[in-house]
User: Fold this.
Amino acid sequence: MKTFNYHSAKDVKEASKLASSNSAFLAGGMTTIPSMKLGLATYKDIIDIKGIKKLSGIKVSGKTVRIGATTKHVEVANSKEIKKAIPSLSALAEGIGDPQVRNRGTIGGSIANNDPAADYPSACIALNAMIHTNNRKIDAEKFFRGMFETSLKSGEVIEAIEFEVPEKSSYQKYPNPASRYAIVGVYVAKHKTGVNVAVTGAKSCVYNEKNLSQVLTKSFSTSALDNVKISSSGMNSDIHASAEYRANMVKVFAKKAVEAC
Ligand SMILES: Cc1cc2nc3c(=O)[nH]c(=O)nc-3n(C[C@H](O)[C@H](O)[C@H](O)COP(=O)(O)OP(=O)(O)OC[C@H]3O[C@@H](n4cnc5c(N)ncnc54)[C@H](O)[C@@H]3O)c2cc1C
Assistant:
């Protein structure tokens, strides 16, 4: 590992000011530290944001669940309030990685990293999330831009993620047996305004599978999905699953999610 300067930011303003094109925020460190140790990434400055109280915590109101960026996966998994408001969201957090990862990894770090197989991005899309940063609010649909790419600007700090409470929802994934990242994960959420079907793991970036969303908005049943065809074009293909297999899994896991709602 190359040498770097470590800073512990006392507040968001300081964290943002310390940031540059050659820095990273340290939240859970579950991506940043292994990447540095393996020599995949080098940074001049590491800005620790774990001590900033404002960035952590869970607030549930009637219509929304707001989760601070440095809130750990284990806290979301165990939150009684989230279990009541959006049970599928705490179940998703419970299914991330292993106990070590869940006790260090944070929701803000997960969505800032935007791994194509990460779980939380699908929750953001399915639950019409708003990403609150120190400068603005970003609609989840505009936040996830591509593989490991978001609309965050240099020095921009995610402060919280605000999810809309749906009428019903479920997240179903086929986990990689080693890491538990999604080979394919499908998050179905039924809102008063319509249904979202967010897919992770299948392409280079999370996306809303509009064919399935539209059909389920008209008729919320597994049989409504029978005749929908999912194209394998643009799907990932690797040692775990071919593009065609992933396309089939999107439909299979969408059905499972509808059934579990
Ligand atoms: C073995 C292993 C298994 C895993 N399995 C899964 C899995 O099954 N499903 C899954 O979804 N994930 C999985 N993960 C990822 C993990 O859950 C973390 O969420 C992820 O590594 C990043 O979160 P972090 O808090 O550790 O971020 P860090 O590593 O601290 O930071 C990651 C990136 O996010 C940026 N960042 C962090 N916080 C903020 C913020 N508030 N504002 C702006 N930018 C920020 C940093 O600058 C950095 O670029 C796994 C990780 C490991 C190591």
Q: What stands out?
A: The first strand starts at residue 5 and ends at 8.
